[in-house]
Specification:
This protein has 470 residues and is an all-alpha fold. The protein is 69% helix and 2% strand. It contains 22 helices and three strands.
Amino acid sequence: MKNNAINIFKVLTFLAVLVLALMVRKKSYAEIPIPGQSVDEYSYSWVGLSLIENGMPVGISGIDGYKNSLPMYVNVDRFFQTVSTGEPLTINYPWMDHPPLLGLITGGYAYLSGARVFEDTTSYIIRKPIIIIGTISVALLGIFCWINFGYFAGMLGVLLYATTPLVVLSSRMIQAENAIIPCLLACMIFMSLYIKKKNDYWLLAAALISGMATLFKLTGFVCHLFVLFALLGNYKKINKSFLNDFGFFLIVSLPISFLFVAYGLVYGLENFMNILFSNYNRFYGIGPNSLIELIRNQRLTQHKFLPEVSIISGWLVFLSLITKDVKDIGNKLAIFGVFSYLIVYIFFGSQPYGWYTFPFWPLLIILLSKFLSDGIMRGKNFVAVFFFSTMILGANISQIINVFAFQAYANWWRIGVSATFFILVIMSILKLKSKLLYKILLLAMMAGIIYTNVQYLNSINIDFWWKNIS
């Protein structure tokens, strides 16, 4: 009875955090990010709406290869009064930039909400499904951490991913990457269970979700790469034939992926191939500088940055782990996930669009959560854990409190952080371990991080967006 009560409490607490995740994503979702910062949000929805209405995918494309183009002023969300340069939008048909699944979700929801023309597809309507998808991603990240690292790491991971400002704001945007994220996380869950249970149903589930990921965008092939690495890296644990497993996976997943080709053939092979190769020949912006920017800068859109120390800390944990022989299955799978998407990122070239980096973030939060939970619960790498926690908390405070207003508290902050760090280092050198003290201190800092995350999110309105988000 006692164990059942504990389990029920854990589940209810987990669900409560998901409610928090939904609430912070829903607050001002139609206003921030500013609608029109990426016209892709409208384009995806127009593709789905036009497919449902007329059977012809119509959207906005910036690539060559389209024979049918039409300049139009579609002043949805007062687009031409806020972010537009005044030039008409170039509408293309049949639109083939990407598979249509995300458009069918957002455009389909708009249709069910009464939208019949493009002007009806306001951000208030079309962003609602993506908020649900973002909350599902929070749940999947928490489940992955829970089953691989334990309940505390799961709760820490879900709290961080639920409230980190950069993640929350990005998860409101209608971008295919936000739909690929839950597919990748689900695939990671299924593969971790397959490695542990050796039940073929989990591999089948990974294959089905991997195939579906490519119907959002071709970069959804990250799931195929991840499964390849997961099988190669754990074939001794699975104790099965790698070729048989991966062959079975491809037999199931590839026919789903090739539905995009079948979809393209409906509108003509020549048209489909022209657009595919035009997409392939787009400006390729990758390079050493772009890889450095990936760690140093966090983009929301093409021109808007929102520095996030949690993501930078995740990169540092990742870089430290790849120098070690990692045995833990959860960490190994998260590392495989980062490497898989890094290959996709490099292959497709990802400057300067911020949403191309979105799938890295849940993977980095997973690695960071495990690192922090080990520091709190086991006292491992305590100095580094304290350093990361202080940096994240300090960065949040600097965003909430104006730098001039903070001067009244500056000395308290300097003395408090320095004294605490000095005491902990001395205790570590003298091996005067106090796990209870460590836990209380770090748990207080984690609570402070979550609280300041939410406060920071509450402070971001339209004025803040234009004035403070560069």
